[in-house]
Amino acid sequence: MNKVMTSLQRLGKALMGAVAVLPVAAILMGIGYWIDPTGWGEDNTFASILISSGSAILDNLGLIFAIAIAFGLAKDSNGAAALAGFIGFATLTKLLGEDAVAVYRGIGDPEELTGQAARDWAAEGWAAVGSKNVLFGIVIGVLAAWVYNRFSGVKLPDFLAFFSGRRLVPILTSFFSIILAGIFYFVWPVIYGVLFNFGTWIQGLGAGGAGVYGFFNRLLIPTGLHHALNSIFWFDVIGIDDIGKFQGGASTIADAAAASDAASCPGIWDGSHCEVVGVIGQYQAGFFPIMMFGLPGAALAIYLRADRKRRKVVGSLMLAGALAAFFTGVTEPLEFSFMFVAPMLYVVHAVLTGISLAIAAAFHWTAGFGFSAGFVDMLLSARNPLANNWWMLLVLGVIYFALYFGIFYFLIGAFNMSTPGRGKDAEVDSDEDDDAGDDDTRATAAKIITALGGAENIDALDYCATRLRVVVKDGEKFEESQLPQNKVLGVIKPSKNSVQIIIGPQVQFVYDEVVRQTPSSVSATGEGED
User: Fold this and answer.
1) Of 147, 184, 266, 502, which sits 20 to 30 A from 166 (CA to CA)?
2) What pTM does this model have?
3) Cα(50)–Cα(33) distance, rounded to whole angstroms?
4) Where along the chain do its domains lie?
5) What is the pLDDT of residues 207-233, one digit of tens each?
6) How far is Cα 417 from Cα 513, in angstroms, rounded to an integer?
7) How far apart are CA 195 and CA 206, in angstroms?
């Protein structure tokens, strides 16, 4: 079980390596829509360049996933694994593309099919095979990483020595991809049918489905498995692709106008036409009131409930977390401040998130994001043609600020919860809080190394948006009590030898300092996203 959890954690991190490029698409397309909100690039050349540049990312998202996952899962994050991911994805999609399968079947032009033959062809899903197919990207990324980890050290005879080691990986990945294409030729129509029906069912739940998703999205944050759930709703895994379709804006509306049935509709098919405005974005919009308003309200409640002698320290922590949540949608610094010390609050937080998504979906208030549901993304998406009554999310946000503040303030006091600045936390010596700059970072890193059992006990180290991810040789040597209490927001132990230390947005600098202090002991594997 530990190995399974560790593998899922690594996959989640690798998935976010691909997601990290989405802000670029959001910025480019967001500015493009701001410049030309009616022509969507047709009336302004510069807007057209920006929108097309952003589309270049969205249109190749499957390929990006293949490369990022292969790179992220490779044992030393080597470029050969990324190259193998590209080759494998190109091979698989080329062999299973609509035109290729038509040749195998002896069909001249699939577009000329009519009646039942056309419906049967569409039901097999070959048109969904291409550079946007994230599911294929995930499968190939895992395959390429496995090939790299297994064969990158293989030595061939002297006359083939040039192709040994890492050079062998893309070659073998190509051959394995051919075999995989043969398997997918038979199983893809079945998989596509199941996934398409599942996606249709989820969308059929409407606001309720959005609410259920929002609840489990927050509930899975402590495990890191929320990334896998997000992939289903945000990308083209089962046809929902909420982020891609929203960012596509104009093209999504055009596809909806041309749709003739549920299979060709990018939104909700009501039997006669395809509805996308007020629908696309329903798995994103409800997060804005939470990130921008709800959690800052919770932060204020935690600050006011802290013991007076600790309010200065707690206030700094809460203010930094609230600003990060409001402007960028990065919420883990706040969430981890109460996630483990007051789990009741976190369950309430998950429930309120689900309700927010359900409300936004029910009233068709939509906005989208490329990174997370913060002010920057809301501003960029405001002129997107699929943004619908987005300002009502701000109204809902004000209500949520008061709701979070009132509920958190009441529950912390009523149940005497040990949120930051209360109970055991209040007894922590705060002298270190006066430290600053590099000395502070060095001291924090030194204490983390000590808590991990010393440099010799650290087997591998990397970092995400807010977490240090560590693999230790002996899990028994890890002493959580030795961690600097005023710098660490929380700790997750997904397996016996895996430790995740929640630092916050400044994690890179702590990571760099830990690596500097353990140059010969640590296998540093780079950066990802939480």
Assistant:
1) 184
2) 0.65
3) 9
4) 2-203+238-275, 287-425, 436-527
5) 999 999 999 889 887 665 676 678 778
6) 34
7) 17
